[in-house]
Amino acid sequence: MAFPDLMPLLKDAMPQLRGRALANQPLAELTWFRVGGPAQLLFMPDDEADLAYFLAHLPAEFAVTAVGLGSNLIVRDGGVPGAVVRLGRGFNGIAVEDTRLRAGAAMPDVKVARTAQEAGLAGLSFMRGIPGAVGGALRMNGGAYGREIKDVLIAARAVDRRGRVHVLSNADMRYTYCHCGAPDDYIFTEALIAGEPGDAKVIAAEMEKITEARESTQPVKSRTGGSTFKNPPGCKAWQLIDAAGCRGLSNGAAQVSEMHCNFLINRGSATAAEIEELGELVRRKVEEQCGVKLEWEIARIGVAA
């Protein structure tokens, strides 16, 4: 489907805009699942000031949705109305500041871990196991192998829907498991995170163990969205899914992974609807079998076809 073209509005309202804006831009190739419809407007700002200018001048009636590397995301088949903001080159810088790292929100988490290792900074190896970029990790309190972003974050920068820049402390983020309590309209642009002095060789060995663990237990070479459901208190989501008989369950070309049943995979031609329907089927079966209502960890945006 195609949405009304917002480009004339941008040209009139934002003459000083520097970033790249595209009308009715397909989003499927920007997600790990490789599914979904177009963005009514896809905007890729040059830098934080350009993002703030865009948000300040975009009429309030238009929704704004931020996406990152698309690793933990389902874009529905009808696409996403309003503006989709995707941070790119202007937000992928990284710098070592003594025992701290300052990273742009578009920087992949694995590169943060690698930069820390090369600088001899310990405590950040877990980021090797988080798919996606820094912005998504900030928004979802991304974690892996026993640690979360809340354990290392010093401060984050963000721009709100009115174009105002904010600096948030760790406490301001109000983190809980897989959740950030910062306002939903904040688009994170940068993170300052803490490491500690360590041995680069020891850190490299830790990262190698994480890599081996991921590749041996997760379908990392498939079209997937990462961990699908949050772990309920005191339980592992995959164990509940397995107990409900859902390992390998299919819906069209969408399937519950045989390797790790808290992962959904696109076997090649799945639609976003098939993937989401499969997830909902798993939720129903788990609730019927185990009495537990699983909560989605994957973000789902847009409208149905």
Structural account:
The chain has 305 residues and is of the alpha+beta class. 26% of the residues lie in helices and 27% in strands. The protein contains seven helices and 19 strands. The chain has a five-stranded antiparallel sheet with strand order 6-7-13-11-12. β17 (254-256) and β18 form a beta hairpin. α3 (109-118) packs antiparallel against α5. The N and C termini lie close together (8 Å).
Question: Topology of this structure?
Answer:
Blueprint: H1 7-13, E1 20-26, E2 38-44, H2 48-57, E3 64-67, E4 73-75, E5 80-86, E6 94-97, E7 100-104, H3 109-118, E8 121-122, H4 134-140, E9 143-144, E10 147-148, E11 153-159, E12 165-169, E13 187-194, E14 196-197, H5 200-217, E15 223-227, H6 237-243, E16 250-251, E17 254-256, E18 263-266, H7 272-290, E19 299-301
Parallel strand pairs: 2-5, 3-5, 4-19
Antiparallel strand pairs: 1-2, 6-7, 7-13, 8-14, 9-10, 11-12, 11-13, 15-18, 16-17, 17-18
Helix pairs in contact: 3-5
Rg result:
20 Å
The main β sheet shows up as:
5 strands, antiparallel
The number of helical segments is 7
Distance between the termini: 8 Å
Q: Which range best describes the helical content: under 10%, 10-25%, 25-40%, 40-55%, 55-70% or over 70%?
A: 25-40%
Low-confidence stretches: none
Largest sheet: spatial strand order: 6-7-13-11-12
Total count of strands:
19
- Order of helix and strand elements from N to C terminus: HEEHEEEEEHEHEEEEEEHEHEEEHE
Broad structural category: alpha+beta
